[in-house]
Amino acid sequence: MRVLVVEDHEELAVTVAAGLRREGMAVDVALDGYAALDRTSATDYDVVVLDRDLPGLHGDDVCRSLSHGDRRARVLMLTAAGTIDDKVTGLGIGADDYLAKPFAFAELVARIRALGRRSGRALPPLLVHGDLRLDPSIRVATRNGRRLPLTPKEFAVLELLLSAGGAVVSAEQLLERGWDEYADPFTHTVKVTISRLRRKLGDPPLIETVPQAGYRI
């Protein structure tokens, strides 16, 4: 899942981003509203975690812009103002969910994942292919009943391939959805991750390389 955290308090933004990365998400950070719109125009995010009280371009204006555009990203608005009227206003300008500060990190993660499931094509709660099963909600993948010891990136790649339903997924798409802005598109990151994933999945092989196109289950 690709997430954008928009928060002008840099220390908080970095802390939240680091925590979400530990949860297996690909996370970018923007420190103001203008940077947020620049990033959302260039990257297809699943969820935008948006601080409402931003300097310069207010979070409300960012939310309105995103809600009026042709976007797939869901907006989770964060704010220190947590009254009912504030929530009604936030939802009324296009936010998909609303979380008051201070918040429990576990709740933030749960809300982001819930919004991520709504950001694109509806997926079943359990992704299954033969004896391979992947549960996105609890971040567990098994094959023939055996739990697979996957890293967050390996899990993300496997989830993307299973979600494609047999369609080919290019290396560029995997890099876009599974890594953040710091990933080098000219490295063999995806190829190496696919190789490790194949070893952990075992036999018979499940991931097919489609020459000049990408990979598919």
From TrEMBL:
This is Response regulator transcription factor. SUPFAM superfamilies: CheY-like. The lineage of its organism: Bacteria, Bacillati, Actinomycetota, Actinomycetes, Streptosporangiales. It comes from the Bacteria. GO terms for biological process: regulation of DNA-templated transcription. GO terms for cellular component: cytosol; protein-DNA complex. Residues 2-116 form the Response regulatory domain. Keywords: DNA-binding, Phosphoprotein. One of its GO terms (molecular function) is phosphorelay response regulator activity. The modification 4-aspartylphosphate is found at D51.
